[in-house]
Automatic annotation (TrEMBL):
Keywords carried by this UniProt record: Cell cycle, Cell division, Centromere, Chromosome, Coiled coil, Kinetochore, Mitosis
UniProt xrefs under InterPro entries: Centromere_Mis12
Listed name of the protein: Mis12-domain-containing protein
Family: Belongs to the mis12 family.
Entry's Gene Ontology cellular component terms: MIS12/MIND type complex; nucleus
Source species taxonomy: Eukaryota, Fungi, Dikarya, Ascomycota, Pezizomycotina
Secreted found in the keyword field: no
Location in the cell: Chromosome, Centromere, Kinetochore
Amino acid sequence: MASSPACTALLTEHLRCTPLTIIDDIINTTNELLYHSVAAVETYLLTSAPSSLGFLPPPGTIRDTNSDGTELYSDAETEELEKGIHSLETLLESAVDRSFDRFEIYVLRNILTVPEDLVPWVRLAHHKNLDFKTLPASTATSTTTTPTPAPPAQEAQTRLRTLRQTLLASHALNQTLRKEVSANEQTLAQLRVLVSTSSGENPFSFVTPTRDAAAFAVSQVDLIRQLVGALRTKYDAFRASQEAQGVKMEVDG
């Protein structure tokens, strides 16, 4: 029987990850070991003498060797080895997938599970001192009918679910804040190094306060206008002298 959403939520809160995440980690670790094993087999085969693996040169020919005198595989022999290694890898992958499919079903049904009727009664370590209403035990004796939860039980389950969601959100926020604190500490450390190596001078002298920069810019507006006016007067005089000499000047508007 598959785990109920309430059971999955409870285990996720307790383990800080979903049950499937744990199983996936186990399967991924197994696959990594599988690939390492296949790589080791491939290395062994390619570094072995061809004759030790049953590869013999055609009659009347001599096998090529490298500078160390080690016999080399021909292209056809190398291709045959690669096909064999690929077949071995495929066979092992199929065996792992088939076996771990059964493993996943067994673990989810028998290990990483909580009986559904016990889920409302489970109190985790961080639930201590939380005010939960006592859940009444089922008074139904018939096995053919499904008992209807009493209103207090429904209210307690709703409250527990809300508290769990709040706890998970708080945990996520805590992780985010920890990352921010770590980043800020690194920035402060860099600034302290900058200050300590400034030999008494202000390392931030190049930084101009925004208010001072704005005031300086405003104070320069009148001066800029005066300079523009003076330049315009000189330009008009220069233009008039050029036109008097018969030189026509065009100005892009």
